[in-house]
Protein 1
Amino acid sequence: MMKKLDNNQISRIKKITKEIIGWIICIVIAVILALLIKYFVLTPTVVKQESMYPTLEENQRLILSRLGRTFKQLPKRGDIITFEAPTVTYRTEEDTDISNPVAIYEEEDRNILENFSYNVLEIGKTSYIKRVIGLPGDHVQIKNGKVYVNDEELEENYLQSGIVTDDAEGIFSDIIVPENTVFAMGDNRNSSVDCRAFGCIPLERIEGKVLIRFWPLNEFGKVKK
């Protein structure tokens, strides 16, 4: 036969239960706030590609601003951005309307949990990191190993000495950037799959803009434009 609890024991159990519930509520609130900050304000990321060398190297750690996505603002020329990788990475003249040079994104059927996992937690999502070269309405041309925007050669002091921009890397080497999209390329032009190959990136696919590099510590600070 179970022993009946006295008033002190009942009071102690109630107090412990209340504390546990309080901690659970605090943890849930903290997780929600962290997810909101990650999605709408700031988030850390790790460089996993060599396409931005020498500006960025693999395994360096960065802080991204999400505010551009939150307020639906396009980045500026020279900004380094991350964006969702297009569904079709390499386009051909046969399957492309060159007058509409926008990257292809095929929507997948996902339930609410899968959408949350993919878009908020970013599990299973592939992202690219590149530098913005062309903005809506810009005439971007790649010729003779150089980049021209609106018929003026673009100064690219961030490129490694001797690097040329090859127009053979894709079919989008002479285009007008459509509205609400950007044309972006990696600084390591010979090892970058970018808008030359798959087209311009829509605003809604841009995930963040690089604010600072925080690792390694000896390179802490803003990333040069």
Note: The chain has one domain: 41-217.
Protein 2
Amino acid sequence: MKGQVWWITGASSGIGAALARALGARGAKLILSGRNVAALETVAADCDTEKLVLPFEATDYAAVPAIAEQAWAWQGRVDGLVNNAGISQRSLAVETEFAVYQQIIGVDLLAPIALTQQLLPRMIGAGGGQIIAISSVAGIAGVPLRSAYSAAKHGIIGYHDAVRAENEHLGLKVLVVAPGSVRTNVSRNALNADGSVRGESDAAIDNGLSPDQAAAQMLAAVGAGTRELVVAEGAEAAIAGLRRSDPNALFDRMSAMVQAGYAQQMKAQR
């Protein structure tokens, strides 16, 4: 990865920041994007490499072509794209306002599609490259309290699988990552049923893998040419496996979780 240009969205914290540090340590040149300029500059200061801080609003789709042009022009190419920016959810579907679905799907699915569509012709024209798409275990299995998030993250897998199928022979590699619990602000920043920010983390998130551990697994998978990677342990890894091997057993497990009071337990943490 030495000398390659990598563009990371959602680079201001969590997995995005960890990937920036890890890629920078490997000699990659970095384009760091997100909305929080101060946080992006803090991450940039931790990366001893050439970097461009390029903040933008992910759902300002009209601005994406110019942003993509600026990113490409910086070094005349982009070798790697990490579609990482996103927000989660903690609310029952029956209680959730439609605007929450619009917001989450806009940020988590339409925004990475808009950006990838701008870079894809350039990357293919330059001989290919690497995309890392951050989905979720909730993108493999529909998980309670995350109907909007699951919808978006399922879409991330489907879109990137199709992009891989169409362009792999042209030199484009695509790694789809499905993390479970990683110690980030994903739960704290999740949306409630009315669109308000939850403001509290989950015990599962707080006890999850560190972002640096997750990033190391992802970059090892890139080196191995892996196409899909589940970054999860224990029950979360089992959920992803069951969705493929025994979906009915998984559906029964998810239903039993809700009947046992999972939603009430999550609300009690707020």
Note: Strands lie at 5-8, 29-32, 51-53, 80-83, 129-134, 172-179, 228-231.
Protein 3
Amino acid sequence: MQLSRVEKFFFDNPLRTLKQRKVEAPVMFRNLVLREGSSCLEVGCGNGTGALIINQKFPLSRLTAFDCDPLMVKKARKLLNLPPHWARNVLAGNIELMVADAVDMPFADNNFDACFAFGLLHHIAEWEKAVAGIQRVLKPGGIFAFKEIFAPMFKSRIVRRLFPPVSLIYENDLRQAMDKLGFKFVFWKGNETGCFAQAVKR
């Protein structure tokens, strides 16, 4: 699913980048350690900010980042070629950008050490299939670290109009789906409106 114009404006501006760097990533990455040379995946890379943040934090040999919107992937390539001041020392040569679909990911089974998603699932109609795909491409013991927004966040008509969700996800539904798919939560910080979490593929 591609973002609306309002969503693209919101997600592609310096204030959003600052929040992602200083607020979201530190919580999403809390106590997460990846071995040197890990291979990771970012689902829904947007303008590429998340990929730079991930690469800045972890000693990766390879980071594959994709989005379903070719325009966003184009913006991500531009960002990696001309990184902002905070990312000038972040190596980007190991980041592979591509256009792909989160419910039909073109990757082999048991391929990645970790997967990251910054508020992605509510943008996907078949979000359970996306989670199943993430489980498939992770290695056993691999980590899915993510932020997600839950249905009560969209009670306001204004919020629904500005940021229309494709799926209304509730905490219990997400937890049950991930448990059924073989994930075990090792970190959870959230409330009825959303969460930051890390889950291990059993």
Note: The CA atoms of residues 67 and 99 lie 5 Å apart.
